[in-house]
Amino acid sequence: MAAPALAPVAIPSNRPNMGAIPFPGGATFRVWAPFAESVFVAGDFNNWKPAENPLAREGSGYWSVDAAGAQTGQQYKFVLRREGKDYWRIDPYAKQVTSSAGNAVICDTQFDWGEGVFQMPGWHEMVIYELHTGTFNDPPGGAPGVFDSIREKLPYLRDLGINAIEIMPSSEFPGGFSWGYNPSNIFAVETDYGGPRALKRLVKDAHEHGIAVIFDVVYNHLGPSDLDLWQFDGWSQDDRGGIYFYNDWRASTPWCDTRPDYGRPEVRQLLRDNLLAWAEEFRLDGFRFDATSYIRNVYGDDGDLPDGWNLLRWLNDELQRHQPWKITISEDLRNNAWLTRPTESGGAGFDSQWDGDFLHPVRRVLTNPFDEHRDMNQIVSALYHRYGTDALERVVYTESHDEVASANAKQRLPSDIDGGNPAGWHARKRSALGAVLVFTSPGIPMIFQGQEFLETGPWQDTVPVDWDNATRHAGVHLLYRDLIRLSRNWYDTTRGLRGQHVTVHHVNHADKVVAFHRWAEGGAGDDVVVVCNFANRAYDSYTLGVPREGLWRVRFNSDSNLYGPDYGNHPAFDAWAESPGCDGMTYRLSVGLGPYSAVILSQ
Predict the structure, then answer these.
(1) Around Cβ 172, how many Cβ atoms within 10 Å?
(2) 89 and 76 in contact (C-beta within 8 Å)?
(3) Angstrom distance (rounded) from CA 309 to CA 300
(4) What are the distances in angstroms from CA 440 to CA 128, 469, 506, 591?
(5) CB count in 10 Å sphere of residue 224
(6) Which of 451-471 are b and which e, b meaning 16 or more Cβ less than 10 Å from the residue's Cβ?
(7) How confident is the model at residue 81 (pLDDT cuts 50, 70, 90)?
């Protein structure tokens, strides 16, 4: 009688790292499952028979094994056994999946990055273009857009003057159509967008075009659907999320009860490893952290989730330690200056944050239908608002995915200005004033996809950008291109727009005109004066103060009929500044102003 077959003996691996790590002849598998009684890995390499590859205990809830014969490209899952029940789970560290409800894939991380060296643009000249992969360059109907379709538009973005794209979340999420703020597998790249190699191709090509890639990460909640992390190893308290989540009142978020447990070291390590994987393996140049107010606080206010605050500090410190030239941006929107203070001073250590105190007052002024009700103090406050001494601690914008989305009952700025005729004269003129403020105010300017050629209506994640608008509204596109070039000092005549300083020296509440002085060091080619007329009236000769004597040249006039065939082309000639001064400035000059128009001058 033959002896019974012996069960395989599990031996822990001595290779480092989590997830599936290929090696010649096989792959290491490692997972954290502290409440599992036994753990197996099943996949293509063992005909999906879990008993053939048990994992060995390593201590502290970790399990690992070296599985001979496992190869890159093969699919697998962990099988976690507890109390007589098997839980088939996607690897939390899987860098590729067949779908959010499918299997993990042993991923080959090798990629030919070429020999080029990318230089991150200076933050003082950075211009961010926020985009959504699924709708940015996608033919109507059918599947969503992909990373390769973004690559097709990189020459366009470079010529527009964009030097940083900010991609909305692209970790694996359920289905193909989504904003991306419902990640099911945070290490895996969205399959419908092309997967990990396609993202690397995009980053490589963007760098060759001089464009940085900023990636949106979502750590305030996960899922909630197709979320294998939920009760991952079968354990939970009060039927909540289990080992990866808070299992009490702290689990609650506005989206679902799946807030990660920021106080658990293994969960913190998961999020830290995720951030560094994007930075190091994918060579992404920066990160926007979604809804940080719900990481540092359960209800989005202040102060009751110190684990979350400490997590943000640690993540920024870790990125600073590994790759300090990369930028981190917080979307907090609670006017909290501590987000962008250094961690050594008690801050969270972000480099910048989205500035709602610029966005909201500017949009209120531009969308008010009555000139007499426009509050110039709102513009003044938007220009002066800061979180600290560094102007670059804020990102300034008038449109973002949140501010234009139909799901939020919001729409594009031209549609908010004139819903009945969003491509009409009033909407174009006043939204152009918003663009002027974005590109001439202290801070890092940002626009949302299609804003530069007058996309209207609400944004939806199933409706592609209408690229015909780039031709239909060529004047608007030209206006944005010209403003971006002035903002980046392409012609070495507007260096002050990259500087730290601003003085709002002229505020005419009666006539709705505001002028402000921007400078870095001061002098010719540096001092810039921006004059904005928020009323529907023109001036042949409007007098205001300037900081220096001599000839001031008009670098931009938004009333030019280059920007709209129906614009008045109101004369705004170069002007000579002389004493006596006014508005607290040593000198004065007079300049022409069109209705709802802005003029930019420098020496």
Answers:
(1) 29
(2) no
(3) 12
(4) 14, 25, 16, 18
(5) 16
(6) bbbbbbeebebeebbebebbe
(7) very high
Q: How confident is the model at residue 1 (pLDDT cuts 50, 70, 90)?
A: very low
CB atoms within 10 A of CB 252: 16
Q: Which CATH number fits domain 123-225+254-487: 3.20.20.80, 3.30.590.10, 1.10.1280.10, 3.40.50.300?
A: 3.20.20.80
Quote the CA–CA distance of 561 and 596 in Å, as a whole number: 14
Tokens of 42: 């099943």
Confidence of residue 7 (pLDDT cuts 50, 70, 90): low
Q: What is the pLDDT of residues 335-365, one digit of tens each?
A: 999 999 999 999 999 999 999 999 999 999 9
CA atoms within 13 A on the CB side of 423: 12
* CATH superfamily name and code, 495-602: Golgi alpha-mannosidase II (2.60.40.1180)
The residues near 239 (Cβ < 8 Å, ≥ 6 apart) are none
- Determine the Cα–Cα distance for residues 112 and 128; give it in Å rounded to an integer: 27
- Determine the Cα–Cα distance for residues 132 and 124; give it in Å rounded to an integer: 25
Q: Which two tokens stand for residue 601?
A: 């001058």
Distances (CA, A) of 109 to 102, 355, 426, 488: 20, 36, 52, 36
Beta bridge partners of 87: 80
Whether residue 553 contacts residue 532, with contact meaning beta carbons closer than 8 Å, is answered with no
Instruction: Map out the domains of the chain as residue ranges.
Output: 19-89, 123-225+254-487, 495-602
